[in-house]
Each structure stands twice: as C-alpha cells, then as structure tokens.
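Our preliminary data section would be incomplete without showing what the modeling component actually yields. Below, a chain of 165 amino acids is followed by its predicted structure, encoded as tokens that our downstream tools consume directly.
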Amino acid sequence: MQIILQTPHLIVREFVPENEQLYINLYKDERVTKYIQRTEEETRASFSKALLEYNKGSGLGRWGIFNSTDNDFIGVCILKPADSDSKKIELGYVLSYNYWGRGLATELAKALITYGFEQKGITKICACTDPENQASQNVLLKAGFKRQGNVFWYKKKLYFFVITR
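Predicted structure:
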C-alpha cells in the first residue's frame, strides 16, 4: 500500500483488498450518491479496477482518503485519465457524509492539484460537477479551478472546470 500524499488532516493512499467493504458502504449512502448513479456491481468493478491500476505504476488513480489522526475512512478521490475522455486528467472526490462541511474537500483538492502539477508534471487538470451540486462547485473554485462551460460525461450534462499550471 503506497501513500500518495499527506496533509495536516488527510492521508491519501492506495486501497488494499480489505478496504473493499468500506468503499462499497460509502456508495450506499444516498446523501453521498445524490449526484452519482452507480450500481453496487459497478462500484465493486471500479474498486477492482483501481487495485489493478496500481500495478501500472503511473502514480495516478483512484485512492482512499483516511483521517491522519485516527486512520478513519473518509472517502475516495481520483486523479487519473477521465473515463469519459482519457486525454484529460480528472480530479474527483466522494467524502463520507460525516466529513462534510469541514473544509476537507478543499484541502484534498488543493493537495491533489499540487501533487499532479509538482510530482506528476501534469499541466492541466479538469473536474466536473452536477449543475445542482453547489458545494462541490465551491470546493473547485476555492481550489483554483475555473468553470469552462459544460460537458456531457457520465451520461449527463455537467459543469466543467479546469485548472492549469
């Protein structure tokens, strides 16, 4: 298990097989998945795919977010080629409801941007949100992203954000 980055409150690391149930349970909370449509089968498949991707050694992927104080599971984040357009590097996150409203998503987004730009040499990162997800839009704007119109990803029209180095 490789640690990708650490902030004062967060540890972002690769998942291990024993984390699968944590991952699945996160996506069972309807508050968390209000803007994400995914079956349990799709959730299991994305977890398995994440584990396989670690072997490629790209330093990009889907990772777990854990509390740096007590190692509690906080959520999931990505910094990887977008599923909808592999030429674009996408940043994303899903946090457990218990961790909403604490500034952790902004802390995470800023850390992922720094990691992508400084450690991986990425020059442009994108993100998307449901038009109704004002909280995530605010996080992206606080992290330095600029809205660049709309995109049709994940089978729906979403707001599209970009940050460049």
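The mean pLDDT is 95. The two ends are 29 Å apart (CA to CA). Preliminary results of this kind motivate Aim 1 of the renewal.
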